[in-house]
Write a structure and sequence with these properties.
457 residues, chloride transmembrane transporter activity, ClC, membrane, transmembrane
């Protein structure tokens, strides 16, 4: 029987799944921006400062300069950096196993939703972070951040399943643009709530906690679209190992780690990504602290600047995607890294309370933020063998949210040594420089051949 009259529905089905997939970036960006990016770190510092300024001996006016954590003296200003560091180290242990499990199941959309709703529930508990209970806030944030990273592993692993190789830069960039648009929309509402909290009859603390709760609800609600809109995709080329799902997943993970030496280009990119993404993630996590605690801006001003970053990042992601089609993803990422180096250098000299330079810095971050992250994701997908998408992306996120602790640790230690966030943020230039030099060594065409993928034309 001839099939000449049967239409190819593959592109149409891919576009439907891609549209549903875009909405997970739209959903989880509420946590990344409103909670992790803007509100959590400064709020946790204020909670930790209250704990440090409790009763000391008979003098209730004396404040300790640090918290006592398992016998270690921790500065309240460094606490968020250390919390993120612990979370990312734990992620390094969990994400590769999660990726191995995901590659052995067709139900990636259900896994994605499960991790998303777990993270959203933990994030929602931050509404109850009051008084001086910094330990409670730290623990629930760690759970939320781990679940956020795990869901992102699954989400990125779906990208090669719903797009052809020639579509990846475009699809990945649009996904990031959706993320910045969605996160920016909620951030705009939260900006109004924090700015006009007095008119709404709310204290600053209550306004911040309500905004963090809104981020959790947004994340959970919009996840329904990718959960329902992406179909299951059968596993392909998984390792034949014995035992139950967990035992087989450990077996596949071990096989992949041993096999990784056969993909040296992918490995080189992962190491490069470890460094430059470390710098990016630390800037994102520390920007609110820098704006409030170093430059002296209020929470409302920092929220407004973050909103500006989100708006600009939508166009930055799309613009970088278009530039990649003309110049290649690798070259465009390298240009982005030069931009990041310029940003942390300028941050060293921004005057206290100088709003215009701070806004210009925000615009610059927005331009390079979405583009470098979107293109790194699609560029790495070219080096992944079929059937190992989740495992390779779990290693990718082990370098992202799993091992990006060097940057936050460096930031925290430099602040603790200098008592200033300026040298702390400038120290991140090392991560962009090393990452860029390693990226120069990545041979794109060789990496595509090693993975057995078609050449991109």
């Amino acid at each position: 029987m001839s099939s000449a009259g049967i239409a190819d529905l593959g592109p149409l089905n891919r576009r439907k799944e891609q549209r549903a997939w875009f909405f997970y970036d739209w959903a989880n960006s509420a946590f990344a921006t409103t909670i992790a990016g803007v509100l959590f770190a400064p709020y946790l510092i204020s909670i930790a400062e209250q704990a440090a300024c409790g009763f000391v001996g008979d003098d209730d006016r004396t404040c300790r300069e640090s918290l006592d954590v398992l016998g270690l003296a921790i500065s309240p200003g460094s606490l968020p950096s250390y919390v993120i560091t612990l979370s990312t180290v734990l992620g390094a242990l969990l994400y590769p196993l999660i990726g191995a499990i995901a590659d052995r199941t067709a139900h990636k959309p259900a896994l994605l939703a499960g991790f998303a709703w777990t993270g959203a529930t933990a994030a929602g508990l931050l509404f109850f972070l009051v008084g001086d209970n910094w330990l409670f806030g730290s623990l629930v944030f760690i759970v939320a951040n781990l679940a956020f990273g795990a869901s992102t592993v699954i989400n990125d692993a779906i990208l090669p399943l719903i797009s052809e190789e020639s579509e990846r830069d475009r699809v990945s960039s649009i996904g990031w643009a959706y993320g910045y648009a969605g996160g920016g929309l909620l951030l705009a509402v939260n900006f109004a709530v924090v700015t006009f909290h007095d008119s709404l009859g709310l204290s600053t603390s209550t306004a911040v906690r309500l905004c963090m709760l809104s981020g959790a609800v947004w994340w959970a609600a919009w996840t329904i679209i990718p959960w329902r809109g992406i179909r299951p995709h059968a596993p392909a080329a998984v390792e034949q190992v014995e035992g139950g799902l967990l035992a087989r997943s450990f077996g596949q993970l071990w096989a992949t780690l041993k096999d990784l030496r056969n993909y040296p280009v992918a490995l080189t990119f992962l190491v490069a990504y470890l460094f430059f993404n470390d710098g990016i993630q630390t800037v994102i996590a520390s920007a609110a602290i820098f704006g409030e605690k170093e430059l002296g801006f209020g929470t409302g001003t920092v929220l407004g600047t973050y909103l500006l970053v989100q708006f600009v990042a939508v166009f930055g992601a799309i613009g970088f995607g278009r530039a990649a089609r003309r110049y290649g993803a690798k070259r465009v990422i390298l240009v982005g890294l030069l931009g990041w180096m310029g940003i942390v250098t300028v941050a060293l000299a921004v005057p206290d309370g100088a709003l215009i330079p701070f806004l210009v810095l925000g615009v610059a971050i927005g331009v390079v933020l979405g583009g470098t992250q979107a293109l790194a994701r699609s560029y790495f997908s070219l080096f992944i063998p079929a059937g190992k998408e989740a495992e390779f992306f779990s290693l990718y996120h082990a370098m992202d949210r799993g091992t990006s602790w060097l940057g936050t640790l460096t930031f925290g230690l430099v602040y603790q040594l200098t008592d200033s966030y300026r040298p702390a943020i400038f120290a991140l230039i090392v991560f962009f420089a090393i990452g860029g030099l390693l990226l120069l060594r990545v041979d794109t065409e060789r990496g595509i051949r090693e993975a057995g993928n078609a050449r991109i034309v």
